[in-house]
Design a protein that fits this description.
The complex is a heterodimer. Chain A has a single domain, classed as Beta-grasp domain (Ubiquitin-like (UB roll)), CATH 3.10.20. Chain A has 3 helices and 5 strands. Chain A has helices spanning 24-30, 58-61, 66-73; strands spanning 3-7, 13-17, 50-53, 82-84, 97-100. In chain A, a hairpin with a 5-residue loop joins strand 1 and strand 2 (13-17). The termini of chain A are far apart. In chain A, 39% of the residues are buried. Chain B is of the alpha+beta class. Chain B has a single domain (12-414), classed as Orthogonal Bundle (Cytochrome p450). Chain B is built from 15 helices and 12 strands. Chain B has helices at 9-15, 26-30, 35-44, 65-72, 108-116, 122-141, 151-168, 176-186, 198-220, 228-234, 243-274, 276-284, 289-300, 331-334, 370-387, and strands at 47-50, 59-62, 78-79, 148-150, 305-310, 314-316, 319-321, 326-330, 392-393, 398-399, 408-410, 412-414. In chain B, the strands form 4 sheets. In chain B, strands 1-2-8-5-3 form a 5-stranded mixed sheet. Chain B has a 3-stranded antiparallel sheet with strand order 4-12-9. In chain B, strands 6-7 form a two-stranded antiparallel ribbon. In chain B, strand 10 (398-399) and strand 11 form a beta hairpin. Chain B is globular. The chains are: A alpha+beta, B alpha+beta. Chain A binds chain B through residues 37, 39-41, 43-48, 67, 70-71, 73-74, 76-77, 103-104, 106, and chain B through 69, 72-73, 106, 110, 113-114, 117-118, 120-122, 125, 353, 355-356, 360, 362-364, 366, 368, 370-371. The structure holds protoporphyrin IX containing FE and FE2/S2 (inorganic) cluster. Protoporphyrin IX containing FE binds next to helix 11 and helix 15 of chain B.
């Protein structure tokens, strides 16, 4: 199974196997990775599943659509490599993906 | 008949013909008999058109969690724009509508929201935490012992108003003006209170604008600071607002942060009183405050609804909503939807996913202050547990006459001496 590495804001790493087709948000929430709240359950409607995508993966994870960009633009901790992890779907091409978590989700 | 206050709501709710059902009457929220009407709608007509409201005209009720989410995320079809009537079930007279970013659609909404968003940036929240804790301690330490007092007045209002004064960097000694303006903004004229006409409301608004214009003038020429007035005065998208737009955004920030948090503070005390088992769990494990706070906010649902206006035809739950129709998302009902939330009728302080509720809305308008509100409640409960082994609720709550603000005006309590 492909895997994702989540790096908490304090540096703690979590290597999680994630079935293709599931979102990167699910991988964190279902495996108890702290730092992803996902209040809306994956509807791209709360921006509390915010992550930073590490440089080498940016192109492969794609770009946010309009709704995601709007939601992200309200996150105080947003950066150019910010994504909402509920909008990134796991695939073989993303095996090894590394995402970092922001200081806080709101 | 569709009597606003039925003597027997439990049977009335289930027997009134659907085409005569109107869940919106403020009197039902005041006497807390609206619950079975929403249960009926969720079961029999989850997307329901009402034409019998004497106060609000025809409108759609969306009562299930999932359908509400569908409306929330589709701002292109479901507009918040004040030009169509804005965000509450009541259509205010056109010339009295206030422009404010909660009642705007993207892109203008996004630009203005971004100006104030930094108020809840992690660094600012951390700074506010210390201030809030000091104030909570002072308020709690000053409470009377061994006598009955109104929790709403002494704690809920006082604490939220102090918080607001901090966010605006508003003169502390004048802080009660903020709750007065907030109450005037949300008052329902039919309730027969101080605001019994739109003229009176406008007069109060003029006073509020004049006061804040002084603060604006003082800050626009000074260095930017992290308070809401300074942010608006310096923000790219807000520094050239008309006075009316400034007023609108002020009222938004005052009401947004005031009534809602106030009623969560009052509600929390009441729920723990009504659920002694949960109270015992909390006393045994104060760590549960973390998950109790969002549960309080779900259970209270301080804003019973938000309204949108359809700008295109849309099919929802098998019903055809037409362009121009008023659409009311009843958060208070979605938060009791058993298809989305397990045992929704119960107050349970250790739910697994306590933040899965509609009280803050979702989508581009999702509450700016949601984590700030949670932080206030969290600190309050930490300090209550530290001080008081018991706070007794000694009478029935009195509630607000409104189907928008779901609130409590009086909650008599006693702290044993
Ligand atoms: C428990 C407390 C609170 C509740 C239940 C609450 C609820 C809500 C709701 C339902 C919305 C509209 C969401 C939608 O239309 O989808 C909203 C928006 C908003 N709230 Fe809150 N709120 C609370 C506390 C606060 C606080 C403390 C502030 C202070 C900063 C605040 C400021 C705002 C603002 C500025 C908006 C407009 C956001 C936008 O349109 O983009 N709220 N709130
Ligand atoms: S989970 Fe809410 S936006 Fe991703």
């Amino acid at each position: 199974m492909p895997h994702v590495t989540y790096i908490e804001h304090n540096g703690t790493e979590h290597r999680i196997e994630l079935e293709e087709g599931l979102s990167v948000m699910r991988g964190a929430v279902d495996n108890g990775v702290p730092g992803i709240d996902a209040d809306c359950g994956g509807e791209c409607a709360c921006a509390t599943c915010h992550v930073y995508v590490e440089e080498p993966w940016l192109a492969k994870t794609g770009t946010p659509d309009e709704q995601e960009a709007s939601m992200l633009s309200f996150a105080a901790t947003a950066q150019p490599n910010s994504r909402l992890s509920c909008q990134i779907t796991m695939s073989a091409a993303l095996d090894g993906l590394v995402v970092r978590l922001p200081e806080a989700q709101h | 008949m569709n009597a606003p206050v039925s003597h027997n709501p439990d049977s009335d709710a289930w027997t009134t013909p659907l085409d005569q059902l109107d869940p919106s009457h403020p009197a039902r929220f005041q006497n807390h008999t609206m619950w079975p009407y929403f249960a009926r709608l969720r079961r029999d007509a989850p997307v329901h058109y009402s034409t019998t409201s004497p106060l609000f005209g025809p409108y759609w009720s969306v009562t299930r969690y999932k359908d509400i989410m569908t409306v929330e995320v589709n701002h292109k079809v479901f507009s918040s724009d004040s030009g169509y009537g804005g965000i509450t079930i009541r259509d205010r007279p056109k010339d009295l509508r206030l422009p404010m970013f909660i009642a705007m659609d993207p892109p203008r909404h996004d630009e203005q929201r971004k100006v104030v968003q930094p108020i809840v940036a992690p660094g600012n929240l951390a700074k506010l935490e210390g201030i809030i804790r000091a104030r909570v301690c002072r308020i709690l330490d000053g409470l009377p012992r061994g006598e009955t007092f109104n929790w709403v007045e002494h704690v809920s209002i006082e604490l939220t108003v102090q918080m607001l004064a901090t966010l605006f960097d508003f003169p502390f000694e004048d802080r009660r003006k903020l709750s007065f303006w907030s109450d005037c903004a949300t008052a329902v004229p039919e309730a027969g209170g101080f605001i019994d006409s739109e003229e009176k409301r406008e007069a109060v608004f003029a006073e509020c604008l004049a006061y804040f214009t002084n603060l604006w003038n003082e800050r626009v020429n000074a260095e930017p600071r992290p308070d809401l007035v300074s942010m608006l005065a310096h923000g790219e998208a807000t520094r050239n607002m008309t006075p009316r737009e400034f007023l609108g955004n002020l009222i938004l920030l005052i009401v947004g942060g005031n009534d809602t948090t106030r009623n969560s503070i009052s509600g929390g005390l009441l729920f723990l009183h009504q659920n002694p088992g949960e109270h015992a769990k909390l006393r045994a494990n104060p760590g549960l405050i973390e998950s109790m706070v969002p549960e309080i906010i779900r259970y209270q649902t301080p804003l019973a609804h938000m309204r949108r206006t359809a700008v295109a035809d849309f099919e929802l739950g098998g019903q055809r909503i037409r362009a121009g129709d008023k659409v009311v998302m009843w958060y208070i009902s979605g938060n009791r939807d058993e298809e989305a939330i397990e045992e929704p009728e119960r107050f349970i302080i250790d739910r697994k996913r306590p933040r899965q509720h509609l009280s803050f809305g979702f989508g581009v308008h999702r509450c700016v202050g949601n984590r700030l509100a949670e932080m206030q409640l969290k600190i309050l409960w930490e300090e209550i547990l530290r001080r008081f082994p018991a706070i007794e609720v000694v009478g029935e709550p009195k509630r607000v006459f409104s189907s928008f603000v779901h609130g409590i005006t009086e909650l008599p309590v006693r702290i044993p001496a």
